[in-house]
Amino acid sequence: MQWALQSWPSGHAAAAFAILTYAAFVLFSALAHSSRRRYRISRSMLALAPIVLAVYVAADMVRWHEHHVGDVLAGAAIGVCTSVVAFWHVFGGKNVAAGEGTIETSITAEERV
Predict the structure, then answer these.
(1) Neighbours of 28 (CB within 10 A)
(2) 100: phi > 0 → left, psi -120 to 50 → alpha, else beta; which?
(3) Can the peptide bond before residue 9 be classed as cis, meaning omega within 30 degrees of 0?
(4) pTM above 0.85, yes or no
(5) Closest CA to 14 of 70, 58, 65
(6) Which pLDDT score is estimated for 77?
(7) Distance between CA atoms of residues 109 and 101, nearest Å
(8) CB 75 within 8 A of CB 58
(9) Is 55 within 8 Å of 80 (Cβ atoms)?
(10) Measured on CA atoms in the order 70, 74, 80, 84, is the torsion positive or negative?
(11) Tens of pLDDT along the chain (113 residues)?
(12) Cα 3 to Cα 67: distance, rounded to the nearest angstrom
């Protein structure tokens, strides 16, 4: 328990939320533009699955006394902020499902020559 007092913020929670929130953003962006309306709830649940996994990782750190709740919340906030910045930097709010915002489409014709 002594090492738990020296663990602010939680690196486990920060990494889990950064990676899995980014995956959820990509999944939601790719699945949101599908034409089938009747699968909207299942697509949303699939896109939220990485977030549920990140919450599980963070809760598990508290459960096994590796971190305090404040450590985990700070790590989660850092991870979410990192994934938001990374997603915006890579895709810039463009339609991922249509192939916009990828690295290949950001290269202009003059740069390819």
Answers:
(1) 18
(2) beta
(3) yes
(4) no
(5) 58
(6) 95
(7) 15
(8) yes
(9) no
(10) positive
(11) 555 456 678 888 899 999 999 999 888 887 766 656 666 777 778 888 999 999 999 898 888 777 778 889 999 999 999 999 998 888 775 655 555 554 444 444 455 44
(12) 9
Burial 69-83 (b: 16+ CB within 10 A, else e): eebbbbbbebbbebb
SS3 100: coil
Strand, helix or coil at 68?
coil
Could you report how far apart the first and last alpha carbons of the chain are, in Å?
Answer: 60
Q: Where are the alpha helices (DSSP H) in the chain?
A: 11-31, 40-63, 69-91, 109-112
Q: Amino acid letter at 50?
A: P
* Phi and psi, residue 84, nearest 5°: -65, -45
3-state secondary structure at position 18? helix
Q: Give the per-residue pLDDT at 90.
A: 84
Q: Residue 72 is which amino acid?
A: V
Q: Are 90 and 84 in contact (CB under 8 A)?
A: no
